[in-house]
Amino acid sequence: MVGSIAAIGAGLAVIGAGIGIGQVGGKAMEGIARQPEAASKIQTAMIIAAALIEGAALFGVVVALLGLNG
Amino acid sequence: MDCNQVLVSKVKKVIIVFTLLIAFLSIKIDTFAQADSAVVPVDSAVAKTAEAVSGEHGAVEHGKEKFEPTKVIMEHIADSHMWHFWGHTSMPLPVILYTANGLEFFSSGHFHHGEEDYKGAHNTYRLVEDHIKVVGADGNVDEVASKTVLDFSITKNVAAMFVAIFLILVVFISVAGSYRKRIGKAPKGLQSFLEPIIVFVRDDIAKPNIGHKYAKFMPYLLTIFFFIWFNNLLGLVPIFPGGANVTGNIALTFVMALGTMIIVNVNGNKYYWKHIFLPDVPFWLWPLMVVVEVVGIISKPFALMVRLFANITAGHIIVLSLISLIFIFETLAIAPVSVAFVLFMDVLELLVAFLQAFIFTLLTALFIGMAVEEHH
């Protein structure tokens, strides 16, 4: 039972990250469409933001993993 | 005429698409049919075991051990006292223990994969789930005595780290040598491969974030960048010199984050400390702001630590889960799907391996930049 609840926690963490990375990616696309010459700079900034969001989601996944073991 | 050609090509395309679709669907149905038939024996085996247990037979006979993906995955991402190659072949690694009576050195091969105890100079040791425990006089694990024994063994992660360090030394000593020999000439060989990466760390990470004082911090930034990158890449190699989860070990990322924290705080100037202890806010906010800023000193490296650890561990878990699918379904038919997904994830992990090294270095540079920034 503990395992399944931990899995729900991991899923919820991923939902948040999905929304976040979707926002970042969508806005970056808009930015690139508006200013194609700034594409490389926008891409770098986008990847950094995406990695930060992913980090936050992985905190949740790690806690879910700890819940699974403990 | 043109219209006709277009029509013919469109009809051809539609036929191809439909053929592929039907082929795909039939493969899928086949797979599921095989998966179903494969599941049946397992169920009957489980039923047999249950019968055997409930029928109080002396010897429980079942064909196979039940496959537990969680256990197998955790074993693979965890640290170990031996380096597993394949099947029952593994390389024993040295065990170094610090006990109250003195140091102990022996090979982990003496444990015979945890099946036998080893009698050392001071205590008898047993391997319980890859942790070394002290065995008391009564033959059971002595938990109190086990806590006093400190384990400084060369484990799989440490050995893999040595491999990475050796590789880094070989690569960079040769590159440094060619820089010394070829002053003012165009880079050649390995040098021309690494020069853009070093220049990238300098121009895209250090300079924009630290400012004109960047040169002092370049050795640290380059070291952590290449150390994380090499370890991440070696972790992706499934065979011998790689495969250890070095950067996915919280102890290693903790030490790296600690290094960043020390460098940031040692180099912090008076403006950095003023920002923490005397922030530019109304004085009645100070009790709140100072607490937040002091927590910030710890929480920034903490985030660095967890980010690297979680990203690399998550990558390893995903790849291992996809491989586990073959053993969960107990059919070879799922293998092409599984391998295709693993290949996709591995390519993604190749990007993540670089990205995490980049992010760790970038954030370190950012924190250093905030600490050494002059007031304006």
From TrEMBL, chain A:
One Pfam family this sequence matches: ATP-synt_C
Purpose: Key component of the F(0) channel; it plays a direct role in translocation across the membrane. A homomeric c-ring of between 10-14 subunits forms the central stalk rotor element with the F(1) delta and epsilon subunits.
Domain of life, per lineage: Bacteria
InterPro entries: ATP_synth_csu_bac/chlpt, ATP_synth_F0_csu, ATP_synth_F0_csu_DDCD_BS, ATP_synth_F0_csu_sf, ATPase_proteolipid_c-like_dom, F/V-ATP_Csub_sf
V-ATPase proteolipid subunit C-like domain boundaries: 6-66
Localization: Cell membrane; Membrane
One of the record's GO cellular component terms: proton-transporting ATP synthase complex
Sample GO molecular function, one term: lipid binding
Gene: atpE
PROSITE patterns per record: ATPASE_C
Membrane topology summary: Multi-pass membrane protein
Swiss-Prot/TrEMBL keywords: ATP synthesis, Cell membrane, CF(0), Hydrogen ion transport, Hydrolase, Ion transport, Lipid-binding, Membrane, Transmembrane, Transmembrane helix, Transport
Protein name: ATP synthase subunit c
HAMAP family: ATP_synth_c_bact (MF_01396)
Family: Belongs to the ATPase C chain family.
Membrane-spanning parts: 6-24, 45-68
Listed CDD domains: ATP-synt_Fo_c
Site (Reversibly protonated during proton transport): E54
Automatic annotation (TrEMBL), chain B:
Principal cellular location given in the protein's record: membrane
Protein name stated in the entry: ATP synthase subunit a
Topology within the bilayer: Multi-pass membrane protein
Keyword annotations from UniProtKB, A to Z: ATP synthesis, Cell membrane, CF(0), Hydrogen ion transport, Ion transport, Membrane, Transmembrane, Transmembrane helix, Transport
GO molecular function list: proton-transporting ATP synthase activity, rotational mechanism
Gene: atpB
GO cellular component: plasma membrane; proton-transporting ATP synthase complex
InterPro entries: ATP_synth_F0_asu, ATP_synth_F0_asu_bact/mt, F0_ATP_A_sf
Extent of the signal sequence: none
Organism superkingdom: Bacteria
Origin species: Pedobacter paludis
Protein function: Key component of the proton channel; it plays a direct role in the translocation of protons across the membrane.
Spans through the membrane: 158-179, 217-240, 246-264, 276-298, 318-343, 350-372
Similarity field: Belongs to the ATPase A chain family.
Keyword Signal (UniProt): no
Localization (cell): Cell membrane; Membrane
